[in-house]
Design brief:
With 179 residues, the protein is an all-alpha fold. Helix content is 77%, strand content 0%. The radius of gyration is 18 Å and the shape is elongated.
Length: 179
C-alpha cells in the first residue's frame, strides 16, 4: 500500500479507536488492531501515541475548517457544522468531547473555542451593546452550539432537516437573554 494511503488508513482507525475511549484509555495495540497493522507499521508513520493522536486531531480540525470555515458566521454556519459532524462524527467527538478533557491536547480545543468566541463577538456586536453580557453571549453561543451538535450526534442525528433551525433557535434565545 502506498505510504500516504497507509497513513490515512491508520488515521481513520486511530480516530475510531480514540473516539471510543479517549487518549489515555486507548493503547497502540487498540489502534494497530483497528487498522489491521503491526506496531512496526504504526511506528513507521508516527513516532509515538501522542504524535498519532495529535495527527488525528489536526486532521479533524482541518476537515472541520474546510467544511465550516474559520472567519465568519452566517445563516448557513450551523447547517455546515452539522454536516461536518455527520461526515466525521468520531473526529468531531474527539475534538469536542475528548480533547477538552485531555490536558496534553487541550490547546487544540482551546484554539477552536477562542476563534469561535472571537467570531461570535464580532457577529454579536450589531445586536448587543458592548458589555459583560455580550462577552457572556460570545462565549456561550459557541459552547452551546458545539454541545448541541455533540448531543445531536449522540441521539442518532434526529430530524436532520430541521436540526440547524432548532440550534439557531437556542442561539437566538442566548442573544435575546443578553440584550
Amino acid at each position: 500500500m502506498p505510504r500516504a494511503e497507509r497513513r490515512e488508513q491508520i488515521l481513520d482507525a486511530a480516530t475510531r479507536a480514540f473516539a471510543r475511549t479517549g487518549f489515555t484509555a486507548t493503547g497502540l495495540d487498540d489502534v494497530a488492531a483497528e487498522a489491521g497493522v503491526t506496531h512496526v507499521i504504526l511506528y513507521r508513520h508516527f513516532a509515538s501515541k501522542s504524535d498519532l493522536y495529535r495527527a488525528v486531531l489536526d486532521r479533524a480540525c482541518t476537515r472541520l475548517a474546510a467544511s465550516v470555515g474559520t472567519d465568519d458566521y452566517d445563516e448557513h454556519s450551523v447547517a455546515a457544522l452539522l454536516r461536518a459532524a455527520a461526515a466525521d462524527p468520531d473526529g468531531f467527538r474527539l475534538l469536542f468531547r475528548h480533547a477538552a478533557r485531555e490536558p496534553e491536547f487541550r490547546d487544540v480545543i482551546d484554539g477552536i473555542r477562542s476563534a469561535s468566541t472571537e467570531v461570535a463577538a464580532r457577529h454579536l456586536a450589531d445586536d448587543i451593546p458592548d458589555s459583560p453580557w455580550r462577552t457572556w453571549a460570545a462565549q456561550l453561543v459557541p459552547a452551546l452550539t458545539f454541545e448541541a451538535v455533540i448531543t445531536w450526534l449522540d441521539t442518532g442525528q434526529p430530524d436532520p432537516d430541521h436540526a440547524a433551525d432548532r440550534i439557531r433557535q437556542a442561539i437566538r434565545g442566548v442573544i435575546q437573554a443578553a440584550q
